[in-house]
Structure formats: structure tokens, C-alpha cells
Amino acid sequence: MGERNKLFEVEGVTYKKCNGCGEVLSINNYSKAKYKKSGIRGECKFCQKKARLKSFKEESDPNAPPTIIVNFSGGKDSTAMLLHMIELGEHIDYIVFADAGYEFPMLYDYIKTIEKLIKRPITILKANKSLDDWRFGKFTRGNKVGKIRGMPSVVAPCYWMRESKYLPLKKFSNSFPNSINCIGIASDEQERVQINPNIRYPLIEWGWSEEKCIDYLQDKGILNDMYKHFSRTGCWMCPKQSNYSKYMLYKHYPKLWSMLKIIDRENYRDTGKYLFIKSTNYYEELFNSGKVPKDNGSICYECKGIRNVYTEGK
Question: Is pLDDT above 60 for 294?
């Protein structure tokens, strides 16, 4: 099944071995070629894309300045970083926000507020497919083939973080031959730092802590209102959020909590599993009894994983 340029059929699916990477892939992964005997190109679409990117990089001016990309989340650190970079007169080519589609409503308002303040647009990046496409879709491989995927698991890696944050940010960054990505990590969180020539950490350069970022934004009267209820930002439907975040959502955002209960019921219907470790009804009864969880400082610990976006593929 590995002969060059030949097509093979297995269980009704036609395959070909790529002349580039050597992988055996279905012909859906190849472009058509009018003058090829087989009717398709010798290299798969992935190899063709890599070749185009390599050519683009080789043809670009090696002395050209890098594209400066500021990663903006609407949180205190990235906002303080962005505003102070502008105050210092630093060059910025793009300000990007990866939209998971389930951010708190006030976050979208906050983005507009920042745009008006800095008088320039923030580029919104989105996933190729919606969360509904994923959670109502079915597994295509593994021992769960044919079963409905459901919401991201509490314990497994979050596929929605990958699809809505990681991949769009990585794709945008890699669309430039040479880019510097400015990440808002404070000086007291240096354990999150990745050593990479394509990443810059301005807050660490300035010695700005999380507390310094908060003070800076409060002095300007521009701190995100989400910090009245949460220590960190994140998706309101996140299965990995802390019990304290669930409590604040229940107490201050009843409409979102009601929507969360619907998602929980749908997930249990489709997969036999609750959105969280226990049902939203359980947590609601707990909160109604007067029990208030402690704040552990996180809505979603896993979204910190997007710091690894730029460690590959450059």
C-alpha cells in the first residue's frame, strides 16, 4: 500500500501515499491535478501548504522588521500590557482576541471600550466550527466512534480551548514569516514563561506584578468589571471552573446560570455525564443552603495553556 503515485481502495475509501510526508491519506487530502495520471497531486494538501509557507518566508525580506502581535484577552494583565505599550510609543501591528463564543457579555463590551480608548481595532479570531458542532458531533476515531462527543470533560484536555483559542492564535501568528507575540504574563507568574524567540513578555521586562496591573488600570478607571466577581476571566460555561466561579455565576448572572443548566441537561442526555463533577441542580441546592465556596483564583486553569501556542510551528 506504499507504492508511489498509485491509488488504493480500502473498504470503499480511496487512499494514496503522499510523496512529501510519506503518510497514507484518503484522496480528500489531495488537490486535483489535470495532467497527472492518477488525477491528483503527488503531495497532500498539508505538504503543499508547508511548501507555500516556506516559499513565502524565503521570498520575504530577511531584514524586514518582525510583525508585532499583542495578545489581548480582556484580563487585567493583557490590558495593562497593551495600554502601557501604547503609552511608551511601542510599535504594534495587530491586537488580537481569540473569541471562544462563550465569554461573559460584559467582556465584549469591554473590548469595545478599549478600542475606543486606544482608537484602533482589535482583531477578533474565531474557531472554524462552533461549540455546538463539536458537542453535538460524534467521535470519529477511538473506542467511542459514533458516540456523541458532548462538552469538554472536567478531567481531560479541553478541546474547545484548542479549537477556539490555541489554533486560531497559532494560525494567525504563523501567517507571518517573522512575528513577535506579546503575552501578558505578570512578573509574579514567571513559572508560566516559555523560552521562545517569537514571544515577548513586556510585563516581566517592566517588573509589573498582577497587583501593579490592577493598580494601573484602577488609576485609569478602566479595570474590567468582571473582577468585581471573579479573580480571573474565562468562559461562563467552562466545565473546569472552580466552585467559587460557579457560585458567582449562580448569584450574579442568573440568565447565564439558566443557560448553563440547559447545557448540563443536554450533556447528560447525550453522554450520561454532567457538565461538572455533579449536576447543576446539586450546586444550586448547595448554594441555596448558604454554603459559599472559597475563591481559588481561577475560572479555568487550562486556558493558561494557550501560552504554548507559539512554541511550535515557527
Answer: yes
Same domain for 86 and 199, yes or no, is: yes
Residue 224, CA distances (Å) to 5, 31, 73, 220 in order: 57, 47, 11, 11
Domain containing 155: what range?
Answer: 67-224
Does residue 54 sit in the same domain as residue 125? no
Same domain (yes/no): 28, 139: no
State how far the Cα of 309 lies from the Cα of 268, in Å rounded to an integer: 32
- Please report which confidence band the pLDDT of residue 186 belongs to, taking 50, 70 and 90 as the band edges: very high
Q: Do 178 and 214 share a domain, yes or no?
A: yes
Are 118 and 79 a contacting pair, CB within 8 Å? no
Tell me how far apart the alpha carbons of residues 162 and 159 are, in angstroms, rounded to a whole number. Answer: 5
The residue with cell 512529501 is 20
Q: Which of 180, 200, 224 is a domain's end point?
A: 224
Helices assigned H by DSSP within the chain: 45-59, 76-87, 105-118, 131-135, 159-161, 167-174, 202-206, 210-220, 243-252, 254-271, 280-288
Per-residue model confidence (pLDDT) at position 81: 98
CB of 33 within 8 A of CB of 40?
Answer: yes
| pTM (predicted TM-score) | 0.75
| Cβ(232)–Cβ(75) below 8 Å | yes
| Sign of the CA dihedral running 101, 102, 108, 111 | negative
Q: Do 97 and 12 share a structural domain? A: no
